[in-house]
């Protein structure tokens, strides 16, 4: 690709630019054994469902051998399938069936850290002279015997674990059983290349790189002086000194060779960094996830404090990133949901009375933007946060750690539970709701995590039977992306940054203008189109306006003043 600005160049050279990705959390997707845990064959069984929906790429989350402290993000063997999920033969069958349907498989690669049960770590911890010692990050204790510095783990508590055998600490930015790998060591980087090649040879077309912007740590391992929030040490390892170099190495050795589609999960990153990661001229990754738009309800960046979300900030973040990535020639992974986030439907909109409108609004708003949209399992039927009142229902290591830590910090049991209910990653991890039979058709056994009790109303089968369902809304949006060029290449412009209820934007190329208008509030709203845009389609003799998709029975005319009912959302095109 020539030129830095993707908005000015043809987009179709990259096969994944018009794709939609579906994210599968295997543990909660479909259980064929009755063990209460989803499995690989369960996914294979549902491939026709995903194909019909219109999905191009299936992102399968970790199914490797793992003690499951962090549901597979703690890998103990990168080359074997966890028996709970099936066998390598099941995996190969899945890969072939995906290919046979013209879809692509994207694997989750977790190489910022491994499980402490990985044989590398088991060897490394035996002695300071072990040949695997340098696969991990070891430091001497501080003079007082405590951790080498004051960094805090993302799951709470110190980021260092003491190991008695060799009297040193090892770094763990996540759970204490997830030991950070030492990417400074060329042998580690070669191991990663080998892992990627192994899976690419099995027909895998893409890789989702877990927290990949954390792999290069500032080797000084300085204390965080707290001068920038949240002051937990992240400024010393986020988008670190050699990260781009390491990614270019992977690109050269693997991604380019296999024409892989790659998405990097970027923790606490910046727009400039994401342009660098994803601009095709730099030969690093195809696209990036960032999380700024999902922190608009964190007071002062604190995840474990509650506040109503800041709607204008949400719009501003979408706009800044759309414009910035477009100008810098980067490419975004678009998403509202994933396995680490509460359901956006419950978090930002109304999952009760306006359930269907809200779910469709989120979909339309996101799918009109530039980038590659990701659908997290169950989003396409409007799955919502479960309403649990007992800590016993929660499973996630982060939630359980924080429940304890919040109380140690002085919160009452009830206050701590309220925060966990809002913020827990388990909100999105409840089993997929297939039908109205017991346990939503997910398992014939006892599910590892409770099914949301609304499954008799919210399930796949019911939505397949209803032409106005959320499912068919996604079905249509996915097809629009394939046929309406401006969705891929149109220049982005926000239409009213200051409106307190409405998010409206336009996308335009030389032939077409797309207008997306969504009322994010439970009250009627009025929206006034800017004069320039209004006159553009009003005065053009040959042009015509078409409603591409909406979420109410009767859509208003695209006029200068538009009245929107609660959670109404429309996408018009003018050509
Ligand atoms: C990523 C994953 C998350 C996991 C963490 C550590 O953020 O999405 O689920 O816990 O990395 O691997």
**How would you characterize the largest beta sheet?**
8 strands, parallel
Percent in strands: 15-25%
Structural class: alpha/beta
Which strand order does the major sheet show?
A: 13-12-11-5-2-1-15-14
**Radius of gyration from the CA trace?**
24 Å
Low-confidence stretches are: 6-12
Query: What's the helix count?
Result: 16
Q: What is the end-to-end distance?
A: 28 Å
Average pLDDT level = 96
Cofactors, ions, other ligands: alpha-D-glucopyranose
Tell me the helix content.
25-40%
Report the principal-axis shape: globular
What's the number of extended β-strand segments? 22
Description:
This protein is an alpha/beta fold and 575 residues long. The protein has helices at residues 40-45, 47-53, 88-100, 119-124, 186-201, 243-258, 271-278, 311-328, 344-348, 355-367, 397-408, 413-423, 460-464, 470-483, 485-489, 531-539; strands at residues 21-24, 57-60, 64-65, 77-81, 104-109, 113-115, 138-139, 160-163, 168-171, 178-180, 206-209, 261-265, 287-289, 333-334, 372-376, 491-494, 502-508, 513-519, 525-528, 545-550, 561-564, 569-574. The chain has an 8-stranded parallel β-sheet with strand order 13-12-11-5-2-1-15-14. A 5-stranded antiparallel β-sheet has the order 16-17-18-22-20. The longest helix is centred in the middle third of the chain and has 18 residues, at 311-328. The model is unreliable at 6-12 (pLDDT under 50). It binds alpha-D-glucopyranose. Alpha-D-glucopyranose is lined by residues 70, 73, 110, 174, 210-211, 265, 339-340.
């Amino acid at each position: 690709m020539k030129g830095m600005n993707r908005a000015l160049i043809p987009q179709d050279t990259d096969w994944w630019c018009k794709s939609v990705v579906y994210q599968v959390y295997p543990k909660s997707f479909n259980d064929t054994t009755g063990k209460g845990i989803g499995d690989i064959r369960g996914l294979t069984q549902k491939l026709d469902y995903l194909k019909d929906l219109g999905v191009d790429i299936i992102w399968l989350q970790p199914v490797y051998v793992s003690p499951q402290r962090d549901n597979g993000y703690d890998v103990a063997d990168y080359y074997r399938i966890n028996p709970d999920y099936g066998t390598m033969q099941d995996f190969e069958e899945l890969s072939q069936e995906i290919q046979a349907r013209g879809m692509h498989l994207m694997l989750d690669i977790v190489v910022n850290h491994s499980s402490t049960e990985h044989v590398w770590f088991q060897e490394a911890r035996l002695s300071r002279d072990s040949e695997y010692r340098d696969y991990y990050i070891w430091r001497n204790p501080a003079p007082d015997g405590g951790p080498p510095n004051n960094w805090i783990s993302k799951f709470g508590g110190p980021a260092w674990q003491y190991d008695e055998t060799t009297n040193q600490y090892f770094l763990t930015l996540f759970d204490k059983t997830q030991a950070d790998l030492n990417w400074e060591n060329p042998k580690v980087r070669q191991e990663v290349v080998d892992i990627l090649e192994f899976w690419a040879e099995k027909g895998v077309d893409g890789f989702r790189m877990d927290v990949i912007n954390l792999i290069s740590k500032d080797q000084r391992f300085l204390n965080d002086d707290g001068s920038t929030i949240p002051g937990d040490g992240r400024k010393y390892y986020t988008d670190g000194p050699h990260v781009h170099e390491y990614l270019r190495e992977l690109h050269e050795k693997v991604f380019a060779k296999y024409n892989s589609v790659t998405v990097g999960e970027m923790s606490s990153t910046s727009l400039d960094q994401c342009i660098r990661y994803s601009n095709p001229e730099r030969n690093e990754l195809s696209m990036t996830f960032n999380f700024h738009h999902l922190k608009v309800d964190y007071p002062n960046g604190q995840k474990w404090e509650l506040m109503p979300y800041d709607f204008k900030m949400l719009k501003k973040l979408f706009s800044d990133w759309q414009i910035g990535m477009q100008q810098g020639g980067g490419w975004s992974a678009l998403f509202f949901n994933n396995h680490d986030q509460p359901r956006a439907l419950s978090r930002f909109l109304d999952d009760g009375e306006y359930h269907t409108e809200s779910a469709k609004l989120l979909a339309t708003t996101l799918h009109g933007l530039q980038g590659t949209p990701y659908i997290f399992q169950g989003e396409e039927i409007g799955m919502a946060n479960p309403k649990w009142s007992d800590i016993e229902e929660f499973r996630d290591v982060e939630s359980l750690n924080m429940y304890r830590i919040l109380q140690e910090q002085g919160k009452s049991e009830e206050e701590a539970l309220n925060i966990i209910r809002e913020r827990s990653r388990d909100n999105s991890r409840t089993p997929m709701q297939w039908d109205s039979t017991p346990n939503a058709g997910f398992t014939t056994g006892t599910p590892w995590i409770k099914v949301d009790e609304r499954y008799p109303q919210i399930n796949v089968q019911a939505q397949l039977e209803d032409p106005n369902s959320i499912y068919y809304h996604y079905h249509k949006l996915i097809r629009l992306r394939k046929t309406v060029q401006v969705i891929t290449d149109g220049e982005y412009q926000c239409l009213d940054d200051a409106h307190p209820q409405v998010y409206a934007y336009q996308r335009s190329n030389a032939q077409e203008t797309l207008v997306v208008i969504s009322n994010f509030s439970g009250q009627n709203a009025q929206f006034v189109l800017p004069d320039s845009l209004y006159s553009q389609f009003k005065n053009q003799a040959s042009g015509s306006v078409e409603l591409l998709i909406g979420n109410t029975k009767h859509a208003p005319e695209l006029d200068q003043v538009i009245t929107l009912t609660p959670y109404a959302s429309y996408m018009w095109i003018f050509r």
